[in-house]
Amino acid sequence: MYSSQFHAAGNRHKPFRDFRGIMKKLLRSLLTVSLAAFTGVLFAQTALPPKPTVPPKPVPTIPQTPIPPAPQPNAQSWVLMDYANGQILASNNMDQRRAPASLTKIMTAYIVGAQIAAGKLHMDDKVYITTDAWKQGGAGTDGSTSFLKLHSYVPVHDLLYGMLIQSGNDAAIALADHIAGTQTAFASLMNAYAQRLGMTNTHFVNASGYPADDHYSSAHDIAVLSRALIEHFPQIYKITSIKQFEWDGIMQYNRNPLLSSDPSVDGIKTGSTKEAGFCLAASAVRDGMRLIVVDMGSPDMNNAAAGDEALLNWGFNFYRTHKLYAAGQVLATPRLWKGEANTLELGIAEDASVTIPRGQYDKLQATLEMPATLIAPFKQGQQVGTLKVSFDGKPVLSDPLVVLKDAPQGGFFKRLWDAILLWFHHGKGTTTTPAPVVTAGSPAPASAPAVPATPPASK
Question: How far apart are CA 223 and CA 215, in angstroms?
């Protein structure tokens, strides 16, 4: 009985024992967790702090290089031009009409190049030295001469050497007489070419630059002419870089002092008379960029050379020429209506380049302006819009946007369907869109011709 009562009592207290056991286990677990946490805190407090990191050094901001004013040569007029695009970087009285002296011979050389290109003249053609050439430009005159013998025959290439290196008046006159019959007729040819090249402040009377009434040019026009000679007839231009050659036992030297003092200079011509003063046209290439400089009316050749050199250094140091787009490059493919194709390929006919201050390429912005609606047909080369480039908000280039290949009309049903669609097309007037983005890269080509290793055989 006692046992039964004991078991009964035990059964009555079992829930309490179980509860008590659970509580003990819970308290034990809490104690363990608390101890572990406390130990971790102690360990964390006694652990070594992380090694501090060195903050990165700030990158210095390089201020934009200011451009100082252009040098001021001791000359009556001067100009600094970029060859790639004809852009004027600096000038003073550049359109002032002045006696050009022997800078005139650049045009004579240009016409010789044109005659050769047309197949009317050849480098090895023999030219008769007329009385006109000998009397007005020979050794008996007070001007520069190539010492050509009266009634002799001299190859064209030797006359070019004599005219462009020694600045021989007799060589220039002989070439003029050979090409046009007389200097008067040749001067008419010179003026026709000057007009074609856009030389608006130039008028020639003779082929040599010998003083004459109504014979004038300007620094700007001579730069334009020099650029044309380099671009159109590089083989002729090469001759202006040769420092000396021998003719008939007489050594003749180039009068351009920059050819010896500046290895980047590879042409072009000197000139001097009492009326003109001292004149110097020079061209140089550095890092693929070509500049042309002309000064007229310096007191002596040393001043002329110093002025040209100062301008070249200034231009190369502070400016850079960038080729933006190539001729024939597709710049846009707008919708073409009623054509065989659905798009029209547009680009430019000549390379587009600009000359801007160094390090400021991000200030360039290019846009394309064209009609909102373009309806076939179109012919290759037809202008339909304009490429416009601005620098720092100011326009620096505007080139025709032309059709790159013929775009004929489509068939009857194509034209009919596009006519229907055009009822719902609201494009009118002119649209302006961004031109393709270009990145600053290599400069525009300088087209610097190589100098021939040796001149023609001396006579």
Answer: 17
